[in-house]
Amino acid sequence: MISSVVVLGALWLVQASPAWWWVWVWLFFLVVSIFLMYLSPVLIEPLFFKFEPLKVEGLEERIRALMERAGLKVSRVFQVDASRRSRHSNAYFTGIGR
User: Fold this and answer.
1) How confident is the model at residue 51 (pLDDT cuts 50, 70, 90)?
2) Which residues lie across from 80 on neighbouring strands?
3) This prediction's pTM
4) 87-96: which pairs have CB atoms within 8 A and are 24 or more residues apart?
């Protein structure tokens, strides 16, 4: 559904500005991409994964210390049951900037 809206928006921009469509479509895709980066962890990812507080005592503090040494700021740390979709270990971080 999201891709349909994005494609329709891009096609409308092509029709509205035939000479400069490539600039407007590029800017449109840039804005949509940034918007989805902010929206994904809050609305999209919870549709597919169940986020829970960490169960291992002290692990959150260790993760925060590691991120601080790497120069990254962490707002929330959750555990995700990704084993339903894969048989290997996995860790991921999402967000924009530091």
Assistant:
1) confident
2) 51
3) 0.63
4) 94/40, 94/41, 94/45, 95/37, 95/41, 96/34, 96/37, 96/38
Name residues whose C-beta falls within 8 Å of residue 70's C-beta, 6 or more positions apart in sequence: none
Strands 79-80 and 51-52: antiparallel
Span 53-67, pLDDT tens digits: 888 899 999 999 998
One-letter identity of residue 40: S
For residue 21, what pLDDT band results from cuts at 50, 70 and 90? very high
3-state secondary structure of 35: helix
Task: Provide DSSP, 52-78.
Answer: E---STTHHHHHHHHHHHTT---S---
Tally Cβ neighbours within 10 Å of residue 67: 15
The whole-number average pLDDT for the span 10-20 is: 96
Q: What does the DSSP 8-state code read for residue 88?
A: S
